[in-house]
Every structure is written in structure tokens, then in C-alpha cells.
Amino acid sequence: MDAGELDRFIKEEFLRDSDTLQASTAIVQEGFRDLNKYLVLKKCIGTGEEMESFATSKEVDSVLAWQKIAYIPQPRLDARKQFKVFIRNHGVVDKHRSEIWKAVTGVTEFKNQNALKPNWYENVEKRVFGLRRPKKFFEVPNFGGTLINATNDPSNPQDKQNANFTFDQFPLNEDGFSAASRILWCLALENADIDFAPMIPDVVVFLLLFLSESDAFLALTLMIHFSKFKVRKNRTNLGVRIAEENRPALEAGAGVGWYLMLTNRRQHIFLTSFSLLIEKHLPLIWQHIQNLRLEVSEFADIWFKRLFVGTLPFSSILRIFDVFLTEGSKVLCRVGLALLKQGQEQLMACIDKGQFLSTIQVVGLQFFNADLLMKMAYSFKTRKTALSQIEKHSKIIVDSEDVNEPEAKLYFRPKFTDAKTETVEEKQMITKREGKRHNWAKESDILEDQEFEAIWTMLPSKYKIKNPRGPLFTTKENGFSLKTLLENCENQGPVILIIKSKRGNVFGGFWSEGLRAMKYNENCYGNRDCFLFNLRPKIQKYAWRAGNSRVFCRITNENLQMGGLGLSLDNDLWKGSSEYCETYENEKMDGEREFSCVELEIYGFQ
After folding, report:
1. What is the Cα–Cα distance from 155 to 160, expressed in whole angstroms?
2. What is the CB-side half-sphere exposure of residue 29 using CA atoms within 13 A?
3. CA-to-CA distance for 13 and 94, rounded, in angstroms?
4. Rounded Cα distance, 272 and 75, in Å
5. Range ranked top by mean pLDDT from 147-161, 185-199, 476-490
6. Distance from C-alpha of 521 to C-alpha of 35, rounded to nearest angstrom
7. Could you give the C-alpha distances from 247 to 81, 111, 194, 240, 251, in angstroms and in order?
8. What is the pLDDT of residue 182?
9. Any idea what DSSP says for residue 521?
10. Which residue has the higher pLDDT, 5 or 101?
């Protein structure tokens, strides 16, 4: 390599100016990186004397070492074997990161074995979302972890509560966070046996920095598989095993996962093993921790759940993630030991628990030298047999305690179709899979996808697992008539009524017994499942509570009502009113007592 080629290659890897980087024709970006934030986080690390040089000699050595790589094996085990030590010593340069990550996680091998199934992820998406690919979400499965998205506002108390750090610490662009949300939904609905795996959200975000959405989903699907089962030398037909096998439920007695801790029990076993490693390799620190009456979980739990996000600088975490994909979760224990060893002098001077916790946080955020971090991490000599004994001992300790799994949360997304984009082939594909013609709801003219999703989170559990049907009635297509509304909704079962007011607010109600004229001598109908809701300007559910009035729903020739005064609309579906009622204890749905309805839609359930 001549001087000019070396200069160009180093600039590609270490360039700070994103405008120049974007202008470079030698670079083709894969993934969803926000280049400005990525370069700042990766290279502008520290301030003053702590600021590292443009490219250290060690970094240049790594660039040169990667330049000599001529071939990356496609089989997962071959790639891991060839690059295991190499990645420990040199990390992965951005130019090769996508290819390496796909090789060591098995993505490349899977895709080669399933060349005739190029749309595998797209088919998963259709099973989860229907024929409309959402970009915005009201709720995203988090598997017990932490979600960070592009709309987080640190000044907002609710966003601050949901985040341990600001969005600036994850250099993903807006499309990347939409992709992460879709992947998490697909993972949740395709892996119903996994309720608790708090590393998953952060792993998804890191993968999307350098992989496409479909490759990131496939990589994590494979990582989940390797975490469930001991896959060693049997490398034949990897794609068929993952894509077509009837994946069994997670075994309660399984040990710590290769990549991910997929249960709360596994997380506790991992933490207990780490505690035993501290006692073995850092006895002074261990004794000091005991003297301070400090639990290791008080500082290490968040390390392993978040892959050290918020604890170490971004460039160091990215280096750890390279090794994590190649060697699995054991590297996290090594990094934890290195962090304690790095701060041993300061930590030993701490006189109470609070000072210890704040000190270890400072030590971590100042640990900018990723090469030193990895060198220290692998300076602890522990044989595989010793690690196995530690894990067995940890299982015994954890099994003697009461470790409860978090309560499982039901996730379900209502599916929609778009008549403009639904092809004959898509209809036939869905009919073949479901055994019947699908009847997913058409998109709403009033609601965004995430608002429909918000309604689904409010529904009783027995309705959450059903898809919407309709619309059964819309004023846009059927006119403003209560009589026509009742004719269209007769014998249709429970329905959701959605109103858009002249003020631009959106609200409505869930009618658990459908929309019908009251029977003779019937004063009202409905049950405790009925509720009112607001979607704009704020999302709010108003549900019946024990002891409240039971005037759930009323429909006469003159009007339809929920809660009597709660929500009322005349027989022309135009003039309405809303005020506090004793059934739902709601606010005025449109801000004022009287409102004008400019659009109304009604959806049923399949």
C-alpha cells in the first residue's frame, strides 16, 4: 500500500467532518447511522487533555491489519474461529463492520442456505403488521429493557423517566428508530415465549447502525436461537433450522444464554457468576463491597442489561459489541472486571455505598481507551472448566432463592390493508396461509396508525387479540344519519366509535355490546367493558369503576349516548355534547360542552 492509499483509507475510517465523509464516493453506508452524531460520539471523545488524537498509532495499526484481510468466511463458526482473537486485538473498522457482523452472527450463512427465500423478513412483517408498514408507534415491546427513540425529550418528565440518557448517545437516524420499532414488534410476536430479555432493545439499535432492517432482524433472530440452544459443531442447514422448525418454548432449566439472558432467572445467574468472578480475581474490591453492604447488582445489573450503554463511552461500547457478536456474553463479565480494576484505587477510597456508585460511574465514562479496556478485560485468566463450575455454583445459589419472572405483557398490533397496494399475489398468499380470505380493516381517514394502536392498548384483553374490521360505517361514505348507522352496524358485535370534531380533536368510545336501538322498557345497555377515550390533543382512557353509575350506553331515535352526559350525538350525527358523567368520570371530550362532528367512523372486530 502506497502513502496515498494509506492516507485515503485512514481518512475514511477516522474522518470527523461528516460533510466531507458524505461527499466521499469511496464510502457506501449501510445501516441507519446519523453520520454527524456517529462521528462525534466515535471520535470526539473527551475534552482538554483527555481528547484523543485524530488517529492514534494503535488505530492506524488496526486499519493496516484490516487492509490485509482478503477473505471473510461465510459459515458462522469459521468466521468466529478466524476473527475471534483478531477482533479482540484490533476491533472492527467501519468499512468491514457490516460484513463481519453478518458473518459471525450467521446471517450470511443463513441467506446463502435460503437463497430461494429472499423475502423472509418481509413475510414476517406482513404477519405482524398486515399490508401496511407502520412508521410511527404508540407502544413498542421492550422485553424489560429501555427504549430510546428520536422523539424523546429530556425535559419531558415522562420521557425522562423512560430514558437513562439522552438520544444523543445513540447515533441512529429517524428511519432507524422506526426500523427498530418494527423489529421489536416482529420479535415480540414471533417469539411469544420470551417476556424478559432487557438487552434486546439496545442490541437492535446497535445492529441497525451497520445493517439493513432485514439483516438486523435476522441477526437477532439467530442470536435468540443460539441463546436458547447449545449449537456447537452442527452447522448443517442452519437456515432450515431457524426458518422452518417449530421452535420449542424456552426451557426453564436452561443455563445462561450464549448471547442473551432470555429470562429473569438467567439474568440472576449471570450476575451471581460475575460476583463470584469479582471474589476470585479482585479480592480487595470484593471485600470492600462487602464492607459497604453493597450488592453487586446495584451497579452491575444495568451494565449487563444495557451492554454498558450510559456507563462507558460510545466508542468503547462499539468495540465491546464487536467482541460480543463474536464471542458471546462472557465478554461482558470481563469488561465489568476491567472497569472495577481500572477504578480500584478510587473505589477503595469510597466510604459509603453512594460514593462507590457515583465513583464507578465516573470511572466508566472516562474510560476512553478501548484498546486498554480490552487488554485489561482479557488479562483475567479463567479456564472454560472453571467458568463452567462458577456457572453451576451460580445456578445452585439462584435456585435456592425466589426469583420471579416479570408478569408477561400481551402485545398485539391491529392489522390493516391498503386497497391501493394490495396485489392479487398478496391476497392469495394471505388466503393460503390463513385458510380463508382475510378481512383486515382499511386505513382510517381520521386516525394515524399509532392512534389506532393506542386504542388497542385500552381494550379488554379478550378484544386485544382481534383485528379490526371495517369500517362498518363512515360519514364520508354513508352520510350523516343515525338510522343508516344502526342499519350498517346491526348484529356486528362490539364496535369502536371514532369522532373528529370541528376543533380538530379526536375522541370516541368502545361499545362492548355493539350499536343498536334499545329494547322495550330498556333504559340503557352495555357492561363494565365500555369506556370513553380521547386521542387528540391527548391520549386518555375513561373507564367505568366499581361503584360508578351503570348508564353505559343509550340509543334512541333522537340520539346516541355514552354515560348519559359523557358523550352524546344527535340523530344527524352532527351536533354533539360532552361533560362530566358519573359512569366514566370523564372530562369534556372536545374541551367545550358542545361540539360539531365533521367525521365519524365505526370499526368492528374480526
Report:
1. 7
2. 15
3. 6
4. 34
5. 476-490
6. 69
7. 27, 19, 12, 12, 11
8. 92
9. T
10. 101
* Start-to-end Cα distance in the chain: 65
Q: What is the mean pLDDT of residues 490-496?
A: 89
Cβ(47)–Cβ(368) below 8 Å: no
The answer to whether the beta carbons of residues 543 and 459 sit under 8 Å apart is no
- Give the span between the Cα atoms of 201 and 217, in whole angstroms: 12
How many other C-beta atoms lie within 10 A of the C-beta of residue 214? 19
Pairing of strands 416-417, 495-501: unpaired
In 3D space, the residue among 266, 250, 260 whose CA is nearest the CA of residue 203 turns out to be: 260
Q: What is the pLDDT of residue 397?
A: 77
Q: In the numeric block, which cell numbers belong to residue 82?
A: 478466524
On whether the CB atoms of residues 508 and 533 are closer than 8 A, the answer is yes
pLDDT of residue 179: 92
Cα gap 159→169, rounded to integer Å: 15
Q: In which band, very low, low, confident or very high, does the pLDDT at 64 lie, cut at 50, 70 and 90?
A: confident
Strands (E), 63-112: none
φ and ψ at residue 396, rounded to 5 degrees: -60, -45
**Cross-strand bridge partners of residue 597:** 501
Nearest to 518 by CA among 509, 528, 530, 526: 526
Taking the C-alpha atoms of residue 422 and residue 182, their distance in angstroms, rounded to an integer, is 20
